[in-house]
Amino acid sequence: MPPDGERRVRGVRIADTFAEAFDMRAARVVITAQSSTWARTAAQSMTGFATSVIGCKVEAGIEADLLPEETPDGRPGVSVLVFGFDAAGLGQRLVDRVGQAVLTCPTTACFDGAPQAAERVIVGGLLRHFGDRFQSSKFLDGWRYWRIPVMEGEFLVQEAFGVQKAIGGGNFLILGKDQRAALSAAEAAVDAMRRIRGVILPFPGGIVRSGSKVGARRYKKMIASTNDAYCPTLRGRVGVTSALPPGVNSVLEIVVDGLDRQAIENALGAGIEAACRPGVIEITAGNYGGRLGKHQFHLHQMMR
Amino acid sequence: MITLTLKEAPSVPLEADMLSPDAIAPLTIEEIRALPVYLGKRQRRVDDFFTVEGEPGDELEIRGDARRVKWIGRGMTRGRIRILGNAGMHLGGSMKGGSIDVSGDAGDWLGAEMSGGFVHVHGNAGGQVGAAYRGSLSGMTDGTILIDGSAGLEVGMRMKRGTIAVGGLVRDFAGLQMKGGTIILRSGAELRTGAWMNRGTIVSLQPIPLLPTFAYAATYNPAFLRLYAKHLATLGIDLPCDEGEGAYQRYTGDAAVPGKGEILVWRPRAS
User: Fold this and answer.
1) Which of B180, B226, B260 sits opposite A73 (nearest CB)?
2) How would you class A182 by CB atoms within 10 Å of its CB: exposed for 0-12, middle for 13-18, buried for 19 or more?
3) Which pick of A200, A266, A285, B112 has the fewest CB atoms within 10 Å?
4) Are strands B201-204 and B182-185 parallel, antiparallel or unpaired?
5) Model ipTM?
6) What is the pTM assigned to this prediction?
7) What is the phi-psi region of residue A121: left when phi exceeds 0, alpha when psi lies from -120 to 50, beta otherwise?
């Protein structure tokens, strides 16, 4: 019998801890194109180098592929979520990324996917200057769209994008007996989590191998540094208090940003469930003792 | 809903700008019957011309041949007017919101200078649809006007924003001095379409005679028209935009101004 309060899923221990997450702001960008291939090409380009706000200013990822009937212009599309710390900064990053990655991509158009959001940031209204006064606008159903002439034809972009409250940094750690087992479990988790709307997994392939702790012990200017307690190669080293149970030789982390708490809970629940596979010893989470953010996602509650 | 049934078509135009949901909703049925209307220069009561029945509210139904009843729905901001028959000049003039549905024809100045709302005329309309009044700088600034039949002169004259879609043939000077917005000519137009237009879009699904001051630019499928196609599809109007069906020839002008407007002429793909 497991000790009181201990949870196991298919033999994998679920630690009685919580993932710590923080407030963010998010925008939903809908990119459409002549084909889903080109929509995805633009989306992948736009969400490149957007793994962590620490180094990339924003976190971004593909939320979902959209059917023609789900998009404003009736073409295949992709929904992208972009997260930042505040609306103003997020707006500037959107201008940069839409301008460099979507405007430049053949056949694309770009629309606001969060029209209900209270805050709005100007995106197309700034990108229009690329049109060198040859641009024109259309006003339909209360929204303004800019038509920017380009060599291929026209780039259509909505003037303003909604920015809403969101949560970033939801996570869990997969403690595996070896690298192969941890990666296989993480891939299964990502596959399950990417079916959930309202969330993104901003890291490469949805997986982080370099989980971090807040600050650093020796380099005071560092905002984050390696999570030594979960590095298998540091186990036994003087000054390191390892958090790894015996038998764990590789750890991978899944980080999830979401538009609301429910979306993150759904994603974490689906991910943890899928990650409980042979070779995984424990699932735990990045708990920073309340220093990272006010949102706590208790793993046992995610498994209900 | 209040129902007004025309007793007898007036011999001269009847000015009835009080026939709007904004004016009628807060009144009792007796007060509605006593509302002033003007027959020429003479002030009369609504019930001199209409049988008034029903419960006051945001919905108004007018029955009968009201082609001589002017200014219905003037400046309305909400509610719905349904006209079972024809409507006179200035229907929905300066309206800001709500909707008007006409089963028959509508007179000149339909939706002139409107800034919001929706008007659907199932028959024909007169001239100056969504236009600016004489001496005024701007015509309609938002909203949508659908006309299933034909329309008269100067449709969308000086319009700034909004959408006008006409199913039948449109007479001369559609989009005259247009400043913005979109006019969709499903059966084309007669002469001088887009004359002196500064900005805005005229879409014609049929070949139309163009002024020499419009220059051919390109043949393509504008992305923004897909938004309009989706919007208009909800109103029962089909706007082709699929590359498999054809493409639009873009003409820019009117260079006589010089203008930054465009006329898009649909060219179906040869089968």
Assistant:
1) B226
2) buried
3) A266
4) parallel
5) 0.92
6) 0.93
7) beta
